[in-house]
Amino acid sequence: MGMKAEQKDRELLGRSLLMIAYKFPPMQSISCNRTWAVYEGMQQYFDSVCVVTTSNRHILPRDPVDTSAAYILDARTLDYRTLFQRNGKAAVGGEKLKTSIAGKTLSRLQSSFPTLGMFGEGNFLYVRNAYREACKAIKELNVTHIFSTFPPYADHLVAARLKYKFPELFWIADFRDLHVDPAQDNLFWRRYQIRQNRRILAGASLVTTVSEGLADHLKALHPAVQVLKNGIRTYDDGPRELYPKFTISYTGSMFQDKRRPDTLLAAVRELMDAGTVDPMRIHVRYAGKDSAVWWPLVRKHGLEEIFTDHGLLTSAEAREIQVRSHLNILLTYSTTELKGNLTGKLYDYLASGRPMLVLINGPKDVEIEAVVAQSILGHVTYHGDVQDARAFLSKCYRDWYNGVPFISEKPSLQAFSWDHQLREFALSNGWVGSDTVKA
Known about the structure:
seven-stranded parallel beta sheet, six-stranded parallel beta sheet, 16 helices, globular
């Protein structure tokens, strides 16, 4: 496939972008929100944007995203995701394997050099085939910039090979998470992993990430690090009727013991016991793959009658829950070494326009607090502070019961939009000015 026909009528900018992104729509993954937003948004700043991604996107669970007009090249892939899907062990079966001793060991091998190339998401076959597809695209489109994503690390391995073959390319290495995460014991040979990161990223022109907290760690690996925050996509969903009961919802993963709903459930139980909340007028909903984490806690607090487990849903189905809920819960974590965990889920919740309660498992995180304060859509509390969570829940419930809106008027979220984030990024890199944006 060549350039889109309509580009012939536009002012050429002399820049073409190639993305290397294993996680790309219609694959069902919150990571795809970022890669799809970058793909769409960069159309304004480049003459052409092409993406090389995995052939697994055709067999893995899918979201209803229309990518028919996108310039996508598939890299034939045979990795553990391919095998799990073909054997019917995706999602639930895969999660059970992860929690076993053998599964945890394999997971660490999948994330660690040198074994990630054999067992990881996007193994050596994906790297080889993605590299070949990318080389053809670079020559056909006169590519000037490449944008690779993590996770998985395979995308950066492809980009590093491309940079070696085409040294004139401007390589942006993007990190949605940290490979060497001080808050997780998810790797073998950590010092070796750090050395490998420095070696591979030495060829990158720029390293980007989602928050200042992550950027602080990446600066130890590369001299040029820039924050490109996630953003809000505009969903043309129209107004939604809220659930008839006061509904508290969490949609997402638990990351084993990193995200903790204990404080929320304890606060709900205490409000019910005190008579502050009518058990017939409140409901808690969960959607995700970690039902095994939620149910023991729900039973511990005796909340079975007011709890609904939706299981794993598509992004559109999860968004339906978010926009109909009276309060969305964001579970995240921080450590003394790692803060600013601005997940994609945070921006999904902002896009819903509904209030949220952020529950952080760990020490004070001023970066998350600043985002929530700027949005005026929610409140931040910390794991174990049941009293604070209870007070906020009580206020939200009381306002709902009395018909008082959470906020008097909907705040402007333009500063959180992908258009804003990408324009600021383009300005900082000299890709755009008053007379350089494509028509």
